[in-house]
Design brief:
With about 120 residues, the chain is α+β, with helices and mostly antiparallel strands. Helices cover about 50% and strands about 20% of the residues. It has three helices and three strands.
């Protein structure tokens, strides 16, 4: 008497495992490639800013200029957010507000100054 062994189930199971393994490996490889492309693209497109601040004498007070690679990006000759158009009383006041603007720019925030910022910096308005 001969005995017949059914091996078809094993064949299909092995085939399913191979396909799943291939698909998973392909998926993980694609994710890794996209991740690396994202990192490289960010490094390529994100240009490091070289922000520098300079004080300027204007009229009877002070202001500041912020430059990036010798290009003026902000020129502030009056105290922002107050109703009057007057300059900073001292060079230190102008530079301290300018430094705050640079900190905001470096942290990708709006460079706008609020009255609260001026109060915290003890700017005489």
């Amino acid at each position: 008497m001969t005995m017949i062994i059914n091996t078809n189930n094993k064949f299909f199971w092995n085939r399913i495992q191979k396909n799943l393994s291939f698909t998973l490996n392909l998926f993980l490889t694609m994710v890794l490639i996209l991740f690396l492309i994202g990192i490289l693209a960010e490094a390529f497109w994100a240009k490091e800013q070289d922000l520098k601040i300079y004080s300027i004498k204007c009229g009877d007070g002070w202001g500041y200029i912020i430059k990036n690679d010798d290009k003026i990006i902000i020129k502030q000759t009056i105290i922002p957010v107050i109703s009057e158009s007057k300059s900073f009383k001292t060079e230190d006041e102008a530079l301290s507000v300018g430094q705050l603007v640079i900190k905001k720019l470096d942290s990708n925030k709006s460079p706008s100054i609020t009255k609260n910022d001026l109060i915290l910096l003890k700017i005489k308005m």
